[in-house]
Hints:
The protein has helices at 12-23, 41-54, 78-81, 103-113, 127-135, 164-168, 170-177, 188-191, 198-207, 212-230, 238-247, 294-309; strands at residues 2-8, 27-34, 62-64, 118-122, 143-149, 183-186, 195-196, 235-236, 252-257, 259-261, 272-274, 286-292. By secondary structure, it is α/β, with parallel strands linked by helices. An eight-stranded mixed sheet has the order 3-2-1-4-5-6-12-9, with helices on both faces. It starts with a strand and ends with a helix.
Amino acid sequence: MTKIILDCDPGHDDMMAIMLASVSKDIEILGITTVAGNQTGDKTFENARRILTLIGREDIPLARGADKPLVRELMIAPQIHGKSGLDGAELPEPLSPYLDCHAVDFIIDTVKASKEKITLVPTGPLTNIGLALIKAPEIKANIKEIVLMGGAVYDSNMIPGSEFNIFVDPEAAREVFLCGLPVTMIGLDVTNKSLITFEQIEEMCSWGGRISSIVGPLMKFFAQANLNMFGIKGAPIHDALAVAAVINPDVVECEHLFVDVETKGELTRGQTVADVYKVTGKAPNCRVALKVDVDVFIGMMMESIRKLDE
Ligand code: BDR
Ligand code: CA
């Protein structure tokens, strides 16, 4: 059983990540922490509460984190996730309880208190994780690995050459990539291929279950936004692939490379610069996912929604 903290900014695909983790027998969610990203800190936090209420998992500790990146102004993504951050369906009122502490302190305290090493799974800008590592670097001793959704070697979605989560807070991302812990980068090279197709979304809508009848329309909205923005034919459920890779590492194929993050570039803010040809002589610090078994992954995802419907 892998113990994880899921740090997220829900967000349609963050929601899918929470749902997949919540039904997995191989994962114990020690807590969910939220960060500003896809929408403001208020909204991503409220969305996390709505999601936990929807799936009846008010037992999962929830803590709200950073409202803005380490040094930059926040940039949000309403063009992809809508005004609420979860446009496309009506979620329940946010009734789930939450902790009276900052996400960064929750992460630090939980990692320190754990008897087993913890896996961090960040699926938003890396502000909370970066802050935790800066504030309490000793927690590294009790972190097994960081499996994050963000970045890319060849693909991009924010500006040419960079991905949203890393673009929003490149300074925090750099802290994480260079922190010395094993990092797995589940980036756009694989997540933009990890699509729930429009046909599969229709199928999900036809199940008529309590969860699928909300998730289906949310995926429709998300797929349509991705079609409009990028011409992608389906819903790329980026963040859920990071959780899937924790459950079943074989769902992706990785290369071990040195990766740094561009924080100063004029045209390349937030680029995850990967030493594909090993020209720097620097030791690899990151397992970079470059191939994905889409059928296995989407199978896991559909099954998790079916389970939640039961
Ligand atoms: C990432 O950006 C967000 O919009 C998604 O939730 C995902 O974490 C993809 O670039
Ligand atoms: Ca996200």
